[in-house]
Design a protein that fits this description.
Helix content: 10-25%
Distance between the termini: 38 Å
Shape: globular
Order of helices and strands: EEEEEHEHEEEE
Strand content: 35-45%
Number of strands: 10
Largest sheet: 5 strands, mixed
Structural class: alpha/beta
Number of helices: 2
Radius of gyration: 16 Å
Length: 153
């Protein structure tokens, strides 16, 4: 892991093939139908800035949005980092520890941002980071070995 995830970050959601900045209060919440770009910069122990651009691809986003995200990453890298940032493609469910660390060690993946009843499967990875995946709200998805969270409207 490059650092502890406490550097400066900006998150963008791809909307109509363009970058739309995400409010800080929604950092760490990802919609499975969307693609996001996370611009991240930290200072190395030698005092040199190091930059990463993660682009997170939701499982239900679609090829057009994924293509727009890749294009926007290249554009952002050129505009903000002179092409020097490390670009990292991330598929939903395969988030690297560094990306999760940027959100205080926890993130949530939802299927909708609307207020409604939802069931989340809570998982802890080997790095003691938490991911909450929204799953279909039915009893057969529950088991006695894991933790689940039910939210109500």
């Amino acid at each position: 892991m490059p650092d502890d995830g406490s550097g400066d970050k900006k998150i963008y959601k791809i909307v109509d093939s363009e970058r739309e900045e995400v409010d800080e209060e929604n950092y760490g919440i990802f919609n499975s139908s969307d693609c996001y770009i996370i611009s991240y910069t930290y200072e190395t122990p030698k005092g040199r800035p190091e930059s990463y651009i993660y682009y997170w691809l939701g499982n239900n986003a679609g090829t057009a949005v994924e293509t727009a995200a890749a294009f926007q990453v290249v554009q952002l890298d050129g505009e903000e980092f002179n092409g020097d940032a490390t670009q990292v493609r991330v598929e939903e469910g395969k988030e690297p520890n560094h990306l999760i660390a940027m959100f205080g060690g926890g993130m949530a993946i939802v299927t909708s941002m609307e207020a409604r009843n939802a069931l989340f499967h809570i998982r802890l990875n080997r790095a003691n980071q938490i991911k909450a995946y929204e799953i279909e709200c039915k009893a057969s998805n529950l088991n006695s070995n894991d933790t689940f969270l039910l939210t109500k409207e």
